[in-house]
Design a protein that fits this description.
single chain, globular, mainly alpha, about 90 residues, two-stranded antiparallel sheet, about 45% helix
Length: about 90
């Protein structure tokens, strides 16, 4: 499955970028969300399950969704770089 290898490689690059830009004391969870089909139900959520519990990832995704919704309600796009991780 070469398509999934491309996704895996891209996520690995994200992990490295997060590692390089993480401030001391921060606890980021690199998450990739990939649409693999045109419908909303066909999403891959990629994260390291050996380091991060699925429940923690789900909570951070909910917080991120709330942030996006709040910015959308204000009629503007969310900031290009932001983090809900502290």
């Amino acid at each position: 499955m070469p398509d999934f290898q491309i996704i895996h490689d891209a996520h690995a690059a994200l992990i490295e970028a997060v590692r390089l830009s993480t401030k001391p004391g921060a606890q980021p969870i690199p998450i990739s969300l990939v649409s693999v089909q045109p419908n909303r139900e066909a999403q891959l959520v990629i994260f390291d399950g050996t380091k991060h519990a699925a429940q923690d990832v789900a909570e951070r995704l909910r917080l991120a969704a709330d942030m996006i919704d709040s910015h959308s309600d204000q009629g503007r796009a969310p900031p290009k770089t932001s983090s809900t991780a502290n």
